[in-house]
Write a structure and sequence with these properties.
Distance between the termini: 98 Å
Structural class: alpha+beta
Order of helices and strands: HHEEEEE
Number of helices: 2
Strand content: 15-25%
Shape: elongated
Radius of gyration: 27 Å
Length: about 200
Protein backbone atom coordinates (compact mmCIF):
# COMPACT_ATOMS: atom_id res chain seq x y z
CA UNK A 1 0.00 0.00 0.00
CA UNK A 2 2.83 2.38 0.88
CA UNK A 3 4.57 1.70 -2.46
CA UNK A 4 1.49 2.73 -4.38
CA UNK A 5 1.15 6.03 -2.46
CA UNK A 6 4.82 7.00 -2.92
CA UNK A 7 4.65 6.24 -6.65
CA UNK A 8 1.51 8.40 -6.91
CA UNK A 9 3.29 11.31 -5.17
CA UNK A 10 6.29 10.92 -7.48
CA UNK A 11 4.09 11.01 -10.61
CA UNK A 12 2.21 14.12 -9.42
CA UNK A 13 5.47 15.95 -8.63
CA UNK A 14 6.96 15.00 -12.03
CA UNK A 15 3.85 16.24 -13.90
CA UNK A 16 3.93 19.56 -12.03
CA UNK A 17 7.63 20.05 -12.89
CA UNK A 18 6.92 19.28 -16.55
CA UNK A 19 4.06 21.80 -16.56
CA UNK A 20 6.35 24.45 -15.07
CA UNK A 21 9.07 23.87 -17.69
CA UNK A 22 6.52 24.05 -20.52
CA UNK A 23 5.24 27.37 -19.15
CA UNK A 24 8.81 28.71 -18.90
CA UNK A 25 9.59 27.63 -22.47
CA UNK A 26 6.40 29.33 -23.66
CA UNK A 27 7.28 32.57 -21.84
CA UNK A 28 10.77 32.61 -23.37
CA UNK A 29 9.86 31.53 -26.91
CA UNK A 30 6.78 33.69 -27.60
CA UNK A 31 8.66 37.05 -27.61
CA UNK A 32 11.40 35.57 -29.81
CA UNK A 33 8.85 34.21 -32.30
CA UNK A 34 6.96 37.53 -32.22
CA UNK A 35 10.15 39.53 -32.95
CA UNK A 36 11.05 37.15 -35.79
CA UNK A 37 7.56 37.60 -37.25
CA UNK A 38 7.93 41.40 -37.10
CA UNK A 39 11.34 41.11 -38.79
CA UNK A 40 9.89 38.99 -41.60
CA UNK A 41 7.00 41.44 -42.09
CA UNK A 42 9.36 44.44 -42.07
CA UNK A 43 11.56 42.79 -44.71
CA UNK A 44 8.44 41.99 -46.74
CA UNK A 45 7.33 45.65 -46.68
CA UNK A 46 10.86 46.73 -47.64
CA UNK A 47 10.86 44.27 -50.56
CA UNK A 48 7.51 45.61 -51.76
CA UNK A 49 8.80 49.20 -51.57
CA UNK A 50 11.98 48.26 -53.43
CA UNK A 51 9.98 46.50 -56.15
CA UNK A 52 7.67 49.53 -56.52
CA UNK A 53 10.65 51.91 -56.64
CA UNK A 54 12.38 49.78 -59.27
CA UNK A 55 9.22 49.63 -61.40
CA UNK A 56 8.69 53.38 -61.02
CA UNK A 57 12.29 54.08 -62.04
CA UNK A 58 12.08 51.85 -65.11
CA UNK A 59 8.78 53.35 -66.28
CA UNK A 60 9.73 56.92 -65.31
CA UNK A 61 13.04 56.71 -67.13
CA UNK A 62 11.28 55.24 -70.16
CA UNK A 63 8.91 58.23 -70.16
CA UNK A 64 11.89 60.59 -69.95
CA UNK A 65 13.53 58.94 -72.97
CA UNK A 66 10.50 58.81 -75.24
CA UNK A 67 10.60 61.01 -78.32
CA UNK A 68 8.59 64.12 -77.54
CA UNK A 69 7.06 66.69 -79.90
CA UNK A 70 9.44 69.56 -80.59
CA UNK A 71 7.13 72.06 -78.88
CA UNK A 72 7.13 70.08 -75.60
CA UNK A 73 9.70 71.63 -73.30
CA UNK A 74 11.96 69.63 -71.02
CA UNK A 75 10.94 71.44 -67.84
CA UNK A 76 8.90 74.58 -67.28
CA UNK A 77 7.48 75.71 -63.96
CA UNK A 78 3.71 75.91 -64.24
CA UNK A 79 3.53 73.90 -67.47
CA UNK A 80 1.37 70.84 -67.06
CA UNK A 81 2.72 68.87 -69.98
CA UNK A 82 6.49 69.14 -69.98
CA UNK A 83 8.67 66.03 -70.02
CA UNK A 84 9.54 66.09 -66.31
CA UNK A 85 5.85 66.35 -65.36
CA UNK A 86 5.19 63.21 -67.39
CA UNK A 87 7.95 61.45 -65.43
CA UNK A 88 6.49 62.63 -62.08
CA UNK A 89 3.02 61.44 -63.05
CA UNK A 90 4.41 58.00 -63.90
CA UNK A 91 6.30 57.82 -60.61
CA UNK A 92 3.22 58.78 -58.58
CA UNK A 93 1.15 56.04 -60.24
CA UNK A 94 3.62 53.43 -58.98
CA UNK A 95 4.48 54.90 -55.58
CA UNK A 96 1.16 56.06 -54.10
CA UNK A 97 0.11 52.54 -53.12
CA UNK A 98 3.22 52.42 -50.90
CA UNK A 99 2.40 55.70 -49.13
CA UNK A 100 4.84 57.75 -51.26
CA UNK A 101 4.42 60.62 -53.68
CA UNK A 102 6.41 63.26 -55.50
CA UNK A 103 4.78 66.52 -54.49
CA UNK A 104 5.30 69.43 -56.89
CA UNK A 105 2.57 71.98 -56.22
CA UNK A 106 3.96 74.52 -58.71
CA UNK A 107 3.30 72.00 -61.49
CA UNK A 108 -0.03 70.53 -60.41
CA UNK A 109 1.07 67.74 -58.05
CA UNK A 110 -0.40 68.66 -54.62
CA UNK A 111 1.23 67.55 -51.38
CA UNK A 112 -0.94 65.06 -49.49
CA UNK A 113 -0.14 65.59 -45.77
CA UNK A 114 -0.83 61.91 -45.00
CA UNK A 115 1.72 60.59 -47.51
CA UNK A 116 5.51 60.72 -47.35
CA UNK A 117 7.38 62.61 -50.00
CA UNK A 118 9.81 61.02 -52.42
CA UNK A 119 12.32 63.01 -54.46
CA UNK A 120 13.51 62.54 -58.03
CA UNK A 121 16.49 64.04 -59.80
CA UNK A 122 16.32 64.07 -63.62
CA UNK A 123 19.56 64.78 -65.47
CA UNK A 124 20.01 65.47 -69.16
CA UNK A 125 23.35 65.97 -70.85
CA UNK A 126 25.13 69.22 -69.87
CA UNK A 127 22.05 70.60 -68.07
CA UNK A 128 21.57 71.37 -64.41
CA UNK A 129 19.89 68.50 -62.51
CA UNK A 130 16.13 68.95 -62.17
CA UNK A 131 15.08 68.18 -58.57
CA UNK A 132 11.41 67.63 -57.76
CA UNK A 133 10.17 68.82 -55.36
CA UNK A 134 12.58 71.73 -55.55
CA UNK A 135 12.53 72.24 -51.76
CA UNK A 136 13.13 68.57 -50.88
CA UNK A 137 14.84 68.08 -47.51
CA UNK A 138 16.48 64.87 -48.75
CA UNK A 139 17.98 64.87 -52.25
CA UNK A 140 19.26 61.45 -53.40
CA UNK A 141 22.75 61.24 -54.84
CA UNK A 142 23.35 59.70 -58.25
CA UNK A 143 25.05 56.30 -57.96
CA UNK A 144 26.31 56.20 -61.57
CA UNK A 145 28.27 58.64 -63.80
CA UNK A 146 26.39 61.64 -65.25
CA UNK A 147 24.87 61.48 -68.74
CA UNK A 148 27.71 61.04 -71.21
CA UNK A 149 26.06 62.39 -74.37
CA UNK A 150 23.01 64.25 -75.62
CA UNK A 151 21.01 61.03 -76.04
CA UNK A 152 21.24 59.90 -72.44
CA UNK A 153 19.08 60.65 -69.39
CA UNK A 154 19.74 59.69 -65.76
CA UNK A 155 16.94 59.50 -63.16
CA UNK A 156 17.52 59.09 -59.42
CA UNK A 157 14.80 58.34 -56.86
CA UNK A 158 15.10 58.68 -53.10
CA UNK A 159 12.82 58.51 -50.07
CA UNK A 160 12.86 57.86 -46.32
CA UNK A 161 11.99 54.26 -45.47
CA UNK A 162 9.79 55.04 -42.47
CA UNK A 163 8.31 58.34 -43.62
CA UNK A 164 9.56 61.87 -43.35
CA UNK A 165 11.12 62.74 -40.00
CA UNK A 166 8.55 65.43 -39.26
CA UNK A 167 5.40 64.45 -37.38
CA UNK A 168 3.06 65.77 -40.08
CA UNK A 169 3.87 62.83 -42.38
CA UNK A 170 3.99 59.72 -40.19
CA UNK A 171 3.29 57.34 -43.05
CA UNK A 172 6.06 55.54 -44.88
CA UNK A 173 6.56 52.45 -47.03
CA UNK A 174 8.27 50.39 -44.28
CA UNK A 175 6.90 50.14 -40.71
CA UNK A 176 9.40 50.78 -37.93
CA UNK A 177 8.14 47.92 -35.76
CA UNK A 178 11.60 46.73 -34.66
CA UNK A 179 12.66 50.05 -33.10
CA UNK A 180 11.80 48.90 -29.53
CA UNK A 181 14.27 45.99 -29.83
CA UNK A 182 17.14 48.13 -31.15
CA UNK A 183 16.68 47.85 -34.93
CA UNK A 184 15.54 51.41 -35.63
CA UNK A 185 14.97 52.39 -39.29
CA UNK A 186 14.17 56.02 -38.48
CA UNK A 187 16.36 58.24 -40.64
CA UNK A 188 17.20 55.43 -43.08
CA UNK A 189 16.53 56.13 -46.73
CA UNK A 190 16.37 54.39 -50.09
CA UNK A 191 17.97 55.68 -53.27
CA UNK A 192 18.42 54.18 -56.72
CA UNK A 193 19.53 55.44 -60.13
CA UNK A 194 18.61 54.35 -63.65
CA UNK A 195 19.74 55.61 -67.02
CA UNK A 196 18.31 55.38 -70.53
CA UNK A 197 18.86 56.60 -74.05
CA UNK A 198 16.53 58.97 -75.84
CA UNK A 199 14.40 57.26 -78.45
Amino acid sequence: MRNRRSSLKLTTSSASQRSGSVTLEFIVSVPVVFILLLAVLTFWFYSLAQFAATSALIEGTRQATLAQPSQLVLDSVGAANDRVDTVISTFNEHLRIHCLEIADEANGFPDDPEISNATIVVEFYQQAPIVRPADAEFVPERTTPPPSDANEVVVTLGFHLTGNPDAIKPCGPVPNWLAPVGFDLDGSHFQMTTRGRLE
